């Protein structure tokens, strides 16, 4: 194999693959008339990224991912030439040479691409996913709560929860398709960060994939059966409050400084306003009142401040509607005027001390 590639483009492709694959993974580089392909896989995951290149001699090699990524990051050059030299892959520059050992083909299994079932706009998908995946647990013994459920029909629905909150986003598909999978949230978020333009959704037995021009990821899926907003009772709403999400978030940040260690704040609902108040023996006390449209009863829930801020951040720049249920039932947050992406955020209340 002998190929010349833009150093920054190749570095971006190798780094993207490295972030998705295990630390000791191998990368397979394949050069042909179409350019250079960077690919890697383990038993559960397959990644593939394209890079423009001038191929002098076709070929395919496997090399260690980590040293290749680190070397490319530190290069201060526009182009790099990759040449197989015996049992090494050499990275040649005008004034330097770096050589990596070639690995056996068995270190890099062949790509697997499940069938495409539909397509979605990449920007819209990534934006919705950032919000939804933020509610997934980062480290939980139950894999169910570390994933994002993707369900497709006429629309694409994304769902995630860490048991204290749940976010559900509904966004348009470019074509109808059948899909119901649970994908690890961290992997899906990193993949969506790389995706550009139209993103293909792929599904096969026990597998899910995302593809876009120049990139593909395929992964084994988790059990999606139990993660559903249908399991959350929402028929007991007795208070509805509508106000500016940014104004409420700013008030939560200010008043939260004076809250006790758990940072639990109560939204005291009045006829035309909500009041936030907190006190702490060593820092003092604070209260702030905001105008709001209020209907129904006067149920006043308490929330952990950081969870409430996460929920309000999802509605930045909008007016948000809080549908409040009595007792320890979930509060439902929605945009007062939903846009292309319909987002619903379920937030569990806390016991006020």
From TrEMBL:
GO terms for biological process: DNA strand elongation involved in DNA replication. Residues 21-106 form the DNA polymerase III beta sliding clamp N-terminal domain. One of its GO terms (cellular component) is cytoplasm. Belongs to the beta sliding clamp family. The lineage of its organism: Bacteria, Bacillati, Actinomycetota, Actinomycetes, Pseudonocardiales. InterPro entries: DNA_clamp_sf, DNA_polIII_beta, DNA_polIII_beta_C, DNA_polIII_beta_cen, DNA_polIII_beta_N. This is DNA polymerase-3 subunit beta. It comes from Amycolatopsis australiensis. GO terms for molecular function: 3'-5' exonuclease activity; DNA binding; DNA-directed DNA polymerase activity. It holds the Pfam family DNA_pol3_beta_2. The keyword Transmembrane does not apply. Its main location: cytoplasm. The keyword Iron does not apply.
């Amino acid at each position: 194999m002998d190929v010349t590639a833009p150093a920054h483009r190749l570095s971006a492709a190798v780094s993207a693959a490295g972030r998705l694959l295990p630390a000791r993974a191998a990368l397979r580089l394949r050069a042909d008339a179409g350019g250079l392909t960077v690919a890697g896989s383990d038993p559960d995951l397959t990644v593939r990224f394209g890079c423009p290149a001038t191929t002098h001699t076709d070929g395919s090699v496997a090399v260690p991912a980590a040293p290749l990524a680190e070397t490319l990051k530190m290069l201060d050059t526009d182009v790099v030439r990759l040449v197989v030299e015996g049992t090494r892959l050499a990275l040649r520059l005008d004034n330097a040479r770096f050589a990596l050992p070639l690995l056996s083909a068995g270190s890099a299994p062949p790509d697997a691409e499940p069938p495409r079932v539909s397509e979605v706009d990449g920007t819209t998908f990534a934006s919705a996913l950032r919000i939804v995946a933020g509610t997934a647990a980062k480290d939980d013994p139950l894999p169910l709560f570390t994933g994002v459920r993707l369900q497709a029909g006429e629309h694409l629905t994304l769902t995630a929860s860490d048991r204290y909150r749940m976010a559900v986003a509904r966004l348009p598909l470019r074509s109808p398709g059948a899909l119901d999978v649970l994908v690890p949230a961290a992997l899906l978020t990193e993949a969506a960060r790389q995706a550009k333009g139209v993103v293909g959704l792929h599904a096969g037995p026990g597998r899910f994939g995302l593809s876009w021009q120049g990139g593909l990821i395929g992964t084994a899926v988790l059990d999606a059966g139990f993660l559903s907003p249908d399991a959350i009772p929402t028929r007991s709403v007795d208070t509805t409050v509508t106000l500016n999400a940014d104004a409420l978030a700013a008030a939560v940040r200010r008043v939260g400084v004076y809250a006790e260690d758990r940072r639990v704040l109560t939204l005291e609902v009045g006829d035309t306003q909500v009041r936030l108040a907190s006190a702490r023996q060593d820092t003092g006390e604070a209260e702030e009142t905001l105008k709001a449209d209020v209907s129904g009863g006067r149920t006043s829930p308490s929330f952990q401040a950081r969870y409430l801020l996460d929920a309000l951040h999802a509605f930045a720049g909008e007016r948000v509607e809080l549908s409040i249920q009595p007792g320890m039932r979930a509060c439902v947050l929605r945009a007062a005027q939903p846009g292309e992406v319909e987002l619903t955020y379920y937030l569990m209340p806390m016991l006020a001390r």
